[in-house]
Amino acid sequence: MSMSDSFIHDLRQALGDDQLLVHEQIEPRYKTDWSKASVCEPVAVVRPRSTEAVSAALKVCHAHGHPVTVQGGMTGLVGASQANDGDVVMSLEFLNGVQEIDATASCMTVWAGTPLQLVQEAAQAAGLYFAVDLGARGSCQVGGNIATNAGGNRVIRYGMMREQVLGLEVVLADGTIVTSLNKMLKNNAGYDVKQLFIGSEGTLGVITRAVLRLHAMPTETTTVLCALAHQDAMVSFLRRVRSMAGPSLLAFEVMWPDFFSFMTERVPGNVSPFERSDVMAVLLEVATGDAGLANDVLEGLLESALDAGELTDAAIAQSGKQADAFWRIRDSVSEFPLLFAPYASFDVSLPIQSVCEFVTTLKSQLAKDMACAQSLFFGHIGDSNLHIVVHVPGPRQTFPKDAIDAAVYELVKQYHGSVSAEHGIGTRKKPWLGYSRSPAEIEVMKVIKKALDPGQILNRGRVIDF
């Protein structure tokens, strides 16, 4: 029996045929992520149905020194779940479902393979609210959201995924099960071990279950689309909104003029409520009603911003349908592959005070280095997160991706920002990690990785090199 046959034999013995796919049984969906940037040939796909099955599979892989790529909903943007040839793919799709909702403690226990939308709906059915929301809510899985420390539109109010996790169950590379399904907000008994795994992109352990924090359901929300008078008014307007709205502020999304024009002129169905489409727009969402901001206070906020010359116009959504239409302008980024290809996209963080200067500098630099370059800017500026999309006309084969990457990340480094705000590092941002993390920080990451995965089998080649 060859070493490969012996390995598959041991996996089959540990799991049985119903949790293992090999050879022609392996469907194309396990071989690539949503981007279709590369296709691999895994040696096997493991689909565990319990934490114990995850442990059994990892024990075999650890004993054989065989690399494992952990997959969730495959909606990540940095290649963290894209397997390599010969890997074992561990798909968590069958670790799916809400195990318990504890309304008294305002938390829920879920399996890692549970789609985010199912979590949101289960919380809502219990009269509670799960705060993280992403465009991929129907496909992405909670385990992946935790492993990448997902963000989304309401970080300004509730924080990242890290702030929503009370407890975790994780299986280490050698099969050791670490169960810490804590439900308490206060628990200072030693190191908070779960924090190691949140944002680790599957490199330190496989998350199998999580206790998620829930919040009171916002009884009513109001969406406002605002037209800034000029770019430099953004910071003062944000200060005003924070001061007057306080914890009722749920979202502060900024769209620079080129982005807003693109979305309202080129994307079918999107319409600007303003006379002009080349405005710098801010999309506000605030909690209103009995538990939120009073309508007269919201109106006073907008009037004071208009009087101060920060805004030239503001449209308050008069219905849920109109609110959805405003959000669709911001969220129609799925149209880029159809209308803006070839392009490069970026997810970075910057000090809020420097964002506008960064945008102006980068646009100028790209125009100087690549005369035909078109760049669009938007993002969750209330929590420092800027998204950038750069298009250069021409065939994909000659698209200057490396030059664009260098221009963006060199400037991010210069402004003391982060090369990854909410998408993670994976394989695609790994060359730039040192632009945002010091050598000492990266060395600590390596020490942790070597301690928890000495055989380097989990998501090999992601985040850091050895």
From TrEMBL:
Record bears the keyword Flavoprotein: yes
Annotated keywords: FAD, Flavoprotein, Oxidoreductase
All copies of domain FAD-binding PCMH-type, residue ranges: 38-217
Classification via PROSITE patterns: FAD_PCMH
Gene3D superfamilies per UniProt: 3.30.465.10, 3.30.70.2190, 3.30.70.2740, Uridine Diphospho-n-acetylenolpyruvylglucosamine Reductase, domain 2, Vanillyl-alcohol Oxidase, Chain A, domain 4
Required co-factors: FAD
Pfam family, one: FAD-oxidase_C
Family according to the record: Belongs to the FAD-binding oxidoreductase/transferase type 4 family.
Name assigned to this protein: FAD-binding oxidoreductase
Organism per entry: Orrella daihaiensis
